[in-house]
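From the shared-data thread, chain only:
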Amino acid sequence: MSAWRETLDDLVRLRGRALFGYAYMLTGDASRAEDLLQDALVKAFRSGRHARSLDAAHVYVKRSIATSFIDSGRRAASRPIIAAGGGQFETWARQHPAAADHSTRVDNAIDLRSALLTLSPRERACVVLRYLEGMTTTEVADTLGIAAGSVKRYVSDGIGRLKVALPQMNFDGSEMVAVHTHERGRDE
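Structure, as tokens:
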């Protein structure tokens, strides 16, 4: 078996679920997530140059998923929207509320997923990478190929919109850093 086939096999076997989960968090739709992941795998392994190692392939596929998702959002925004009866996730979620015996955590996850779907593609990608993937601002910037300041702006705008959509959730403190001041001339 060639090296790129072994890398592809390892990537799908060892990290396929995580990559699918990442694509799903961006799209909110299993079919679209599968398509994004499939397209990213084809891009990564078509030429074989991004398949040097498992980690390199993982990074490339993840970036390809984010880029393709953002690009699809731009294309969709430039086309007229034709309303499909009942096909929207939010409509479905309202018609099928969680059973009363489900935990609050499940309800919050559904609400968060619905709210994430209202964000622009870039905001959603930045928020998902920053908070759900646990990346630093610099790592998000590197993954998406944008400036760290842009990431901060997209995260700030995204969190601001999530706060409006989900006032019951606490988004404060996630970017807080303790600031210690010292008086001049005094050692502590």
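The chain has two domains: 1-78, 89-168.
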